[in-house]
Amino acid sequence: VPDSQYGTYVWPCAVVLAQYLWAQRGSLPGKRVLEVGAGVSLPGLVAAKCGADVVLSDGEELPRCLQSCRRSCLANRLPHVPVIGLTWGRVSPELLALAPIDVILGSDVFFDPKDFEDILTTVYFLLEKNPHAQFWTTYQVRSADWSIEALLCKWKLRSILVPLHSFSADKEHLASSSLPGRHTIEMMIISLAQSDGT
């Protein structure tokens, strides 16, 4: 049973997002990528292996998660990948010091509804600084009552659902992993809404 340090596990959403990154591998070399809520960092590490310039982050108040990021980097021969503490909803010196980014990654960050607005506040801040950037995120559908639609409107963000079959992630056994199994996982790309609201 998971403890409060969710970032010490590989979750099904991470496997699906890693599959999307693998499908996009031709466009990743030279891209500047930030993974938020990285935990064991599977998506970020795949992006780095595919040639992206990656920064991994997790909550600054979660030292075990940050250590998990660092261990994953070392285990995958990526000791140069920076790991920083970023807390959702908080403007910190680390957040302000981030270099420009092209892609924000987040797998299963929409886990606890109390965090949804803080996550989108941080994403909005990053997209405002990097208007061309996108937030690539996977999430597990855990309740029909949980939605971010109203928050997307509030923060002037738009989302596009990416069908899992479009990147061969609609299988029970993905990349020889039993994850994601029978979980209901969705993928979306979030970006700034256009001035006309779309």
Q: What would you say this structure looks like, in words?
A:
- This is MET23 protein.
- InterPro entries: Methyltransf_16, SAM-dependent_MTases_sf.
- The protein is α/β, with parallel strands linked by helices.
- The chain has six helices and nine strands; from the N terminus they run αβαβαβαβαβαββββ.
- The strands form two sheets. Strands 3-2-1-4-5-9-6 form a seven-stranded mixed sheet.
- α1 (12-23) runs parallel beside α2 (42-49).
Name the features.
198 residues, alpha/beta, Rossmann fold, seven-stranded mixed beta sheet, two-stranded antiparallel sheet
Q: Structural class, from helix and strand content?
A: alpha/beta
CATH architecture: 3-Layer(aba) Sandwich
Indicate the radius of gyration in whole angstroms: 16 Å
What is the strand tally?
A: 9
Widest beta sheet: strand line-up: 3-2-1-4-5-9-6
Give me the secondary-structure topology.
Layout: H1 12-23, E1 32-35, H2 42-49, E2 53-58, H3 63-75, E3 83-85, H4 93-96, E4 103-107, H5 116-129, E5 134-140, H6 149-154, E6 157-161, E7 173-174, E8 177-180, E9 185-192
Parallel strand pairs: 1-2, 1-4, 2-3, 4-5
Antiparallel strand pairs: 5-9, 6-9, 7-8
Helix pairs in contact: 1-2
Summarize the structure.
The protein is built from six helices and nine strands, in the order αβαβαβαβαβαββββ. With 198 residues, the protein is α/β, with parallel strands linked by helices.
